[in-house]
Amino acid sequence: MPTNLGIDERSANAAPAVARRNVSGPKPDSPDAKAENVREHKLGATARSFAILEHVASSRAPVDVLDIISSVKLPKATAYRLVDWFISQGYLSREPGRRRLIIGPKLTKLAFGALSSSMRHDTPHVVLQRLVHTLNETCNIGTLLNGEVVYLDRVEAEHWPLRLHYAIGSRVPLHCSAIGKLYLAMASSPRRRRLLQSLEVRRFTDSTITDCGRLDTELRQIRKEQVSFDRQEYLVGVICMAVPIIGKNGEMLAALAIQAPEARMNVQTARRHLPALRNAANELAEIFQDKISKAENVKD
After folding, report:
1. 47/32: higher pLDDT
2. Most CB atoms within 10 A, among 78, 123, 159, 244?
3. At what angle do helices 178-186 and 212-225 cross, to 10 degrees?
4. Model confidence over 281-293: pLDDT tens digits?
5. DSSP for 243-300?
């Protein structure tokens, strides 16, 4: 029975092959070998850095450094050194009043820039364009970022004299915007309390809800109907309606909204657009979920 696993028997019985083998690559002490070691060291440091950022960014709760050490398999000194550097540069931050880690403003800005840039040239933008063409009103996709609503993508209606000029990346408050109230309503009770405690419930118009009891009643109704309205609460003369984009596990991935001057669209008119908005939100949910699944597969 052959047992040489592809090795020629003559070479197996010959003098030790190691002495005669022509090893490719630079000699250990050569300048080329030293340069290669430096490159490998840099790549290793880069991989460790990204592993820390990815771990904090993907965690549902603030992270302790000891958790990073355990999960990323880093030496203690290395983990603390990298974390301190990330904090000093704004990529990570300390949880207010505690020592645990959250993503910092610089990492948030980087992630948002990458996401919004990809959105403008991807399938979600096509869905948004099609919806605007169908309804002939401005629509946008928004998410929650650092206690504010931020527009990830936006398509303006083209043929109306009255237009609302917002850019991708524009921010609006939580308590008086349709998307913001939707996020508050859909959040778990503990998270909703934290968000509300961190808010400045400022009055922007006569219609802005600043009473906590009224706002709570509004949020309960929004959660029940799965639709939210801004009835001139942020800008006088502007009506907005938003629906959630829900992932397969029931989490809110983002929100889809329609926005128009009150002269063209009141709340009753907006409700007539609700079926089209929900259909587009379901389509976007499938697209986003597919992206999440692919990202998880790459991570694994």
Report:
1. 47
2. 244
3. 80
4. 999 999 888 877 7
5. EEEE-TTS-EEEEEEEEEETTT--HHHHHHTHHHHHHHHHHHHHHHHHHHHHHHHHH-
- Token pair listed for 125: 């933008």
pLDDT tier at 300 (50, 70, 90 boundaries)?
low
- Please, what's the b/e burial string for 223-246 (b: 16 or more CB within 10 A of its CB; e: otherwise)? beeebbbbbbbbbeebbbbbbbbb
> Are 219 and 212 within 8 A, CB to CB?
no
> Confidence band (pLDDT; 50, 70, 90) for 109?
confident
Q: What pLDDT is recorded for position 129?
A: 93
Helix axes 105-119, 31-58, angle to 10 degrees: 90
Could you give the dihedral angle defined by the CA atoms of residues 259, 261, 266 and 272, in that order, rounded to the nearest 10 degrees?
-40
Alpha-carbon span 219 to 242, nearest angstrom: 13
**Cα–Cα distance, 289 to 300 (Å, whole number):** 16
**Which domains, from first to last, does the chain contain?**
28-103 (1.10.10.10), 107-299 (3.30.450.40)
Query: Cβ distance 286 to 254 under 8 Å?
Result: no
Distances (CA, A) of 160 to 156, 164, 232, 260, 263: 10, 10, 19, 10, 11
Tokens of 223: 């959660």
Amino acid at the residue 297: N
CA distance 117 to 166: 16
Most confident of 96-110, 165-179, 251-265: 251-265
